Amino acid sequence: MPVHYQNYINGKWVDSVSGKTFxxxxxxxxxxxxxxxxxxxxxxxxxxxxxAKKAFEQWRLVPAPKRGDLLFEVAERLKKxxxxxxxxxxxxxxxxxxxxxxDVQEAIDMxxxxxxxxxxxxxDTVHSELPNKDIKTVRVxxxxxxxxxxxxxxxxxxxxxxxxxxxxxxxxxxxxxxxTPCVATEFVKIFDDAGIPPGVLNLVHGFGTxxxxxxxxHPDVRGVSFTGSAAVGRRVxxxxxxxxxxxxxxxxxxxxxxxxxxADLDLAVEGCIWAGFGTTGQRCTAGSRVVxxxxxxxxxxxxxxxxAKKLKLGDGLDKDTDIGPLVSQDAVDxxxxxxxxxxxxxxxxxxxxxxxAKGKGLDKGYFFEPTILANVKPHHIVAQEEIFGxxxxxxxxxxxxxxxxxxxxVQYGLSASIFTKNIQYAHIAARExxxxxxxxxxxTIGAEVHTPFGGVKNTGNGxxxxxxxxxxxxxxxxMKVINVDYSGKIQxxxxxxxxxx
Length: 501
Ligand code: UN1
Fold this sequence. Notes:
By secondary structure, the chain is α/β, with parallel strands linked by helices. The protein has 15 helices and 22 strands.
């Protein structure tokens, strides 16, 4: 029997107002239903926002270290539940067990880190230009935050958003992806068990067109953080912009790995396999383009294809599996569409893969063969657009500057990597790559929670996830400047002597 999941509003587990539901399936075996979930609408969002708005009045006054204590409790409980929740990530989203458990680990790390931030919500003390006057800056919460999250990191990305939002004193209405609602609920249950006050964190399940839109339009939602496609990001901007709500966008990537002629090729191959096919290529940090120096191009390609062919597809719970399924039929259709373009329009060379995988244990899931495309040119559609599947395009380059030009020739700018032993190449690349994250001699994936995460160009709008003061803390707070004048006079800055005759 599938588990019946509910919304969490004002500290209570409830069905949707309409009573409607939808199902969540295992992408490795679509016969398996993971859970039945409320299909909510604007009325459920309304209740959640009202609860969050009311709770904000108390939560913002709870001392930040005390809010941190709650997060510490969440971290401890999540640690105990890591295996169980990690397995649900695997069943509901499809990524292999090691990665699924890593997803929960990322949330545990974030919970401990943000618990500590409760004791570090520092502001500045500032010298005044006037005598007998002090100035300080304090970080204050924004209010009700709407958090809209994707399915590819169904625990980690909600953790990136919920935990800093809460420690900074905001209250939250959380809408998880409709493809991974069950594991999102398991995550929220941890907060409930840890004793979060009613209304501080609310969960509303459903689809973007109903729940997402209602959150974005609600005048009491003063901040929004969204991770997903650039198309939906644009919709977030359209709805939040005119009503001046803060909105933080984390969108696509077309991440590059540059391999220079002096690189350790075996290391580079391993890095490209992990970046390209880890999480079945469904990371916004996936290394979907590899730009290789002409001197080592053929040798690299041979090794890369041989390594990709060894990858074993299957159910992520099976310990021998390297690559799980794509998340849905829509995802398979999207990747297949790009394969058709690669064949008919871009006319690139298929070195391996290119189609839905068949065989024992694969027929009931959304499995797609690891695909390597060669003879790809920078302007080709497969080298420009985010495919979000196990597809890597290999391009040839003449030198570092040509490689950097190719690297920067896309609309996105999330992460990038270079494999080289040349210290000058490494530093020039780090300076020139137009991305929010740069890696030297390693993959484009695997950012750590205490470093700000995000990108430039069409990847984001200038905010950062994770990280501390320069990252999530800035995202989830406003700055307030407090001036205290103890001179007993009305002093005027900028040397103005107004009033003096
Ligand atoms: C994402 O794909 O949206 O750096 C996030 C990484 C992970 C997070 C990816 N820590 O690949």
